[in-house]
């Protein structure tokens, strides 16, 4: 197993892109969230071919910033998005301390500020003892849906939705939806 693979999987569960680079800047491995974010920068005619992720990363960095990324030191880069209303993409380079070819040298973390980390319903059921229905409702709240929207989507009354939410608050020992969302973001790293 390539060094960094467990980290990339954990980053993926949190909706963070992860790319492991060697000392020359070549991509050794990449997670699904990073693929999704980099594909936004590829021309449409190259999205279905086997893309060159190093070139896609360069395009991303050149798109809205003039910052040159140095792989041997920590760096933070904020990349503005093309679509109006989208929050920027945050890129963080973390050197691993080993700059020996052909091994891993740097991990690039891509943080999509428009994406919400979501734990699995199974994890919520096991950790907090939520029922499957409560877990679904909690996940919808974590995605920013209002109780009215959730009740409408599940064809239940608002009173029933409030009853489920009260049970979720009791089981998670939270008191407000904002506290619940913060808690769910913290456990999103779990499989």
**Might you state the CATH topology name of the largest domain?**
Beta-Lactamase
Measure the end-to-end span. 18 Å
Give the low-confidence spans: none
What Rg, in angstroms, do the CA atoms define? 20 Å
CATH architectural type of the largest domain: 2-Layer Sandwich
Structural class: alpha+beta
Topology as H/E string?
HEEHHEEEHHHHH
What strand line-up does the widest sheet have? 2-1-5-4-3
* Number of helices in the DSSP assignment: 8
Shape descriptor reads: elongated
Largest sheet: 5 strands, antiparallel
Quaternary structure of the protein = single chain
Q: How many strands?
A: 5
- Percent of residues in helical segments? 40-55%
**Share of β-strand residues:** 15-25%
Q: Residue-averaged pLDDT, rounded? A: 83
CATH class categorisation of the largest domain: Alpha Beta
Total number of domains: 2
InterPro entries: Sig_transdc_resp-reg_C-effctor, Tscrpt_reg_LuxR_C, WH-like_DNA-bd_sf
Protein name: DNA-binding CsgD family transcriptional regulator
Domain HTH luxR-type: 127-184
Keywords: DNA-binding
């Amino acid at each position: 197993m390539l060094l960094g693979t467990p980290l990339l999987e954990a980053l993926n569960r949190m909706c963070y892109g992860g790319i492991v680079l060697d000392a020359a800047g070549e991509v050794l491995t990449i997670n699904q969230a990073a693929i999704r974010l980099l594909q936004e920068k590829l021309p449409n005619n190259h999205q279905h071919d086997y893309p060159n992720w190093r070139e896609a990363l360069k395009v991303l960095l050149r798109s809205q910033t003039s910052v040159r990324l140095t792989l041997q030191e920590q760096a933070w880069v904020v990349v503005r998005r093309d679509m109006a209303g989208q929050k920027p993409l945050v890129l963080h380079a973390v050197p691993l301390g080993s700059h020996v070819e052909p091994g891993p040298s740097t991990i690039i973390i891509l943080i999509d500020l428009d994406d919400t980390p979501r734990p699995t319903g199974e994890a919520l059921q096991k950790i907090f003892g939520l029922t499957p229905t409560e877990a679904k409702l909690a996940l919808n709240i974590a995605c920013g849906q209002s109780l009215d929207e959730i009740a409408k989507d599940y064809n239940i009354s608002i009173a029933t939705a409030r009853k489920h939410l009260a049970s979720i608050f009791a089981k998670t020992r939270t008191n407000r939806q904002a506290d619940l969302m913060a808690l769910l973001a913290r456990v999103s790293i779990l499989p």
